Amino acid sequence: MKVSLFITCLSDAIYPRVGEAMVRLLARYGVQLEFPTVQTCCGQPAFNSGYWDDARKTATTLIEAFEDSDFVIAPSGSCIGMLHHYPKLFEKDPVMLERANKLQAKSYEFTQFLVKVLGVTDVGATFPHKVTYHPSCHGTRLLGVKEEPIALMNQVKGLELVPLPFAEDCCGFGGTFAVKMADISGAMVTEKVDHVLETEAEVLVGLDMACMMNIAGNLRYRDKPVRVMHLAELLYEGVK
Amino acid sequence: MSTASTKPGTVKERAGLALNDEFLRKAVKFTTERLRSGKKAASEEHGNWDDWRERGRQIRLHTIAHLDYYLNLFADNARANGVNVHFAETDVEAVKIALAIAERKQAKSVVKSKSMVTEELHLNHALEKIGVEAIETDLGEYIIQLAGETPSHIIIPAIHKNRYQIADLLSAEAGETLAPDTQILAGFVRKKLREKFLEADIGMTGCNFAIAETGSMVLFENEGNARMVSTVPKTQITLMGMERIIPSFEDLEVMATLLPRSATGQKLTVYMSGITGPRRTEDADGPDEMHIIIVDNGRSNQLGDPEFQELLNCIRCGACLNACPVYRHIGGHAYGGTYSGPIGAVLTPALKKDESQWDDIANASSLCGACYEACPVKIPLHDMLVYLRRRKVESGNGNLLESVGMKGFSTLLGGSKRMRGVIRLGQLGQKLVERDGGIRIKLGPLKGWNTYRVTPSLPKQSFRDRWSTIQKETQAEGATLDPALKARMEAVVAERKQGGGSSHGGHA
Amino acid sequence: MADTHKEWLKELETASKSKQKSFIDSISSKLGRPRPMEKPAHPFRGAPDFWRTFEWSEEERIERFGANFKAAGGHVARLASFDEAKQFIADKAAEMSAKYIIRQGQPELEAMNLEDAMPDARITVWNTDEEENWRARAAEADFGVVVADYAVAYTGSITVVSAANKGRSVSLLPTVLFAIIPVERLKTRLGEALINFDQAGRENLPAGIHFISGPSRSADIENDLTIGVHGPGVVYALFVG
After folding, report:
1. Residue in B368, B411, B480 closest to A174 by CB
2. What is the C-alpha to C-alpha distance for residues A74 and A108, in angstroms, rounded to an integer?
3. Residue A180: which of A49, A59, A67 has the closest Cα?
4. Which residue intervals define the domain 4Fe-4S ferredoxin-type in the entry (chain B) (predicted)?
5. Alpha carbons within 13 A on the beta-carbon side of C202
């Protein structure tokens, strides 16, 4: 059984601790992830901006990287969601389409794999803090990851989960959107952080580091000491 | 059109104006939140919402896939009911027909109920040019007309105004100070417009649905003005988009279940009227003469286009506007077209074939998918926005700087060695600007981002750099795979091989 | 003038028919196939299957209708007979000082003889004089009185259809509307009322079919659904039977 890690750009370059927590947590169950180092980016920035030729190039790299994996797992619903666009990206190329479909079928967001495939909801963690959760748009709306993180958090001892008002609203990241439409994006992240602060939570947790980077960036800009984490980090910290 | 910078009239600039208008932002936020929580409550109370959405989608898909059959049937039946049916391929043609009728009738005034198609045609201006007074009778449209503005929401045209601003506008019209009380404001409008209804020569309506099998047109409304417009004047002119068709009254039950709940959270609008032809000879009210103008104006461009045909399924409920976080912050006028919000961002360019005429509106979205989730007929607007962006790039109308950037992106990330190099470069380069693990400079590409945020700096080692250490440690201390877990994983793989496939996600 | 106008309309019709052909043909061509001449199979017609068997008991229908109609700002009363309905309307007229009432010429209302209970009020019957401007008469009325053709519990709606003796204006222009609903006309679902129009067929449909679900309202000022605008601001649903 070959279970591969798709680290994603942000976790590779900026948040290696997230990938590490995921690898170490799964290793406790005897699931040893392997890491094909030829992998790069899923191509989402190019795809979403309309540069599909460029997106196809990076997509091909990824398809090749995971060709012989049984499962591909990433700490991001958005990047896994992008793999669901690959069949559309290669709709006119029957050979690549077949390979794209295969990759899509075996790709899982981290909590999806843990809960839906392994059937684990209680990792035995303790985390005595007040936590609020931001469900990222692509994970919830495109992949349908809704119950999994809640099920995992409900089993963490000491964790007090405070509902985030208007949780389902986008944080305003949207990839190149945050750069192209910086002021709209800024208004959105400011509103999101207002809601996070309303909860008086010590920790904000999520499943996508792009959104977390966006929200954390605004929290820090406003000097608000809320700790921002990926759920994999929280769970691993809770079992260490 | 290439660089989406800040030249006058860009989406970005209009959004900038809106973002600095506290009144507008508060008014839009207040009302959209009311509308979307109303929708949520109504759809939850009704139950099986996704089954109804799917049913609605299937009815719309079926009708549009056979639009030639159903529209032809509708036209024949409406004519048999005594309606004068007209076809207009363009906005200019539609206006020409409407004006010809008004002139023929020597009309002095036209009372109108809400119609987005007439907004699309700028029909009020055209009528006024030939000396016909056009009076909007929907409360929101009336307010907007007094303000000399265009609607900023499909359902709530004056959503960008609060009750105090509306009281000021109506007070000016009344010549006395009216209190900012909705009851008083509506009372004034009722009295004022009553006379207009009774005097008007022509009543003009839009059309929510047109029933092919009976040639009937259906109107949903709360105020009663659409009923007035279609009951009192001697002549009725209805403007309908060519895609408004549904096959039968039975199908109307599904639309009537989806539309009001999605629009305002009501179980049904106060009035739902099915109008089948002009008044019967023996009837004492209803129009003597009825015209229906069927308008294309770019709609048929979507037919046969697998990426956009579903756009014609739209039932104009406005739920995507209320769910959209971008709309909430910038309001409808920033979209720069007749239709705003996510549906407007897609529809406005899609109605125009020529990509070079598209502005940057498709970029004003974070692609969060809230619009798709809210849509009662499940139109994948977030995907369509990406297709629009792609078409603009492929037609050579993309942003030059961005396309160079994307080439660089795919080259650098097309191989892991180069990617590693990029990360290294970043780790070294940031030393100049990093402080306390964060980057705050507001220059170059970081200007917009850092106006609202602090950028995290790159750690000394990337995940790639750490991988061999992590791998060694986990292999040394890791547990053996529990047979039960192994069995679960094998079962998933086996199911996948049998073609069970991706039951874990994708569009629900 | 009349003749020339008719001729003008005829010219428009000829132009429209020829335009119709090219307009529809262009749709077929964009859809990439010849125009279907047979009625296409429509496997998704109407509400989902699970919905079609859903039905409330009569008591529950009345209760649910009442809750919905009141939530929309309407008033509901349950009365034993048309005689009681007559008294109810007469009492309301006294209470609200209503002086002018317009009613439909429906047989049930003829038999009810509202005139008897309200000797002081002026009551006119819709479309009983060809010369009269009936729209204006309805607009002046304090009360409009109609008998509903159907009612729907699930949405709290009254259905009225037009005919020579049933004016569209009577349920629209007066200040207060009274709709008398014989209980056996109250259905559970919207579809139970709508199916009748499909079954009647085009030739037999009235010009106006109206579903009324409360007093006239507007959502246009801050989505504040609390106010009456153009239509009747006060609406009574009176169940009889």
Report:
1. B368
2. 7
3. A49
4. 304-335
5. 21
- H, E, C per residue of A58-111: HHHHHHHHCCCCCEEEECCHHHHHHHCCHHHHCCCCHHHHHHHHHHHHCEEEHH
CB contact under 8 A, B488 and A220: no
Nearest to B71 among C24, C72, C126 (CB): C24
Instruction: Indicate whether this model's pTM tops 0.90.
Output: yes
Say if CB A40 and CB B413 are below 8 A apart.
yes
- Look up residue B301 and give its DSSP letter: G
Q: Which residue intervals of B200-265 are DSSP H helices?
A: 225-229, 249-263
**What's the 3-state SS for B116-178?**
HHHHHHCHHHHHHHCCCEEEECCHHHHHHHHHCCCCCCCCCCCCCCCHHHHHHHHHHHHCCCC
Query: What is the pLDDT, as a whole number, of residue B8?
Result: 47
The C-alpha R_g of chain A, in whole angstroms, comes to 18
| Beta carbons within 10 angstroms of residue B506's beta carbon | 17
Distance from CA of B257 to the nearest CA of A (A): 23
**Are residues C192 and C152 in contact, defined by beta-carbon separation less than 8 angstroms?**
yes
In this structure, the strands spanning C100-103 and C150-152 are unpaired
Select from C167, C197, C207, C194 the least CA-distant residue to B276: C207
Q: Are A91 and A97 in contact (CB under 8 A)?
A: yes
Q: Which of residues 106-165 of C touch B (CB under 8 A)?
A: 126-127, 132, 134-136, 138-139, 154-157, 162-164
Question: Which of the residue ranges A33-42, A227-236, B382-391, B433-442 would you say has the lowest mean pLDDT?
Answer: B433-442
Report how far residue B202's alpha carbon sits from residue B287's, in angstroms, rounded to the nearest whole number: 9
Q: Which residue of B has its CA nearest to C47?
A: B254
Question: Which pLDDT score, from 0 to 100, does residue B427 have?
Answer: 86
Which helix (H) or strand (E) is B104 found in, with range? helix B91-104
Q: Tens digits of per-residue pLDDT, B247-293? A: 999 999 999 999 999 999 999 999 999 999 999 999 999 999 999 99
Residues comprising chain C, all counted: 241
**pLDDT at residue B508, rounded to an integer:** 37
Structure tokens at B22: 């506290």
Q: How far, in Å, CA of B406 to CA of B455, rounded?
A: 22
Residues of B in contact with A16 (CB under 8 A): 459, 461-463, 465-466
Q: Are A43 and A65 in contact (CB under 8 A)?
A: no
> What are the chain B neighbours of C210 within 8 Å (beta carbons)?
227, 271-274
What is the per-residue pLDDT across A207-225, written as a single tens digit (0 to 9) for each?
999 999 999 999 999 999 9
Residue B436's pLDDT is what?
Answer: 85
The full length of chain A comes to 240
How many CB contacts within 8 angstroms connect chain B with chain C? 300
Please name the amino acid found at residue C37.
M
Cα–Cα nearest to B271, from B208, B222, B207: B222
Task: Name which of C149, C232, C72 is nearest B265 in CA terms.
Answer: C72
Q: Kindly write down the DSSP assignment for every residue of B462-507, as one continuous string.
A: -HHHHHHHHHHHHHHHPPPPPHHHHHHHHHHHHHHHTT----S-S-
pLDDT recorded at residue C164: 97
**pLDDT of C21-38, one tens digit each?**
999 999 999 999 999 999
Q: How, if at all, do strands C176-182 and C157-161 pair? A: unpaired
Among chain C residues, CA nearest to B291: C9
**Residue B3 confidence class, pLDDT cut points 50, 70, 90:** very low
| Type of residue at C92 | K
Around Cβ B103, how many Cβ atoms within 10 Å?
Answer: 12
pLDDT tens, B165-202? 999 999 999 999 999 998 899 889 999 999 899 999 99
CA gap C142, B128 in Å, rounded: 35
CB-CB contact of B252 with B209 (8 Å): yes
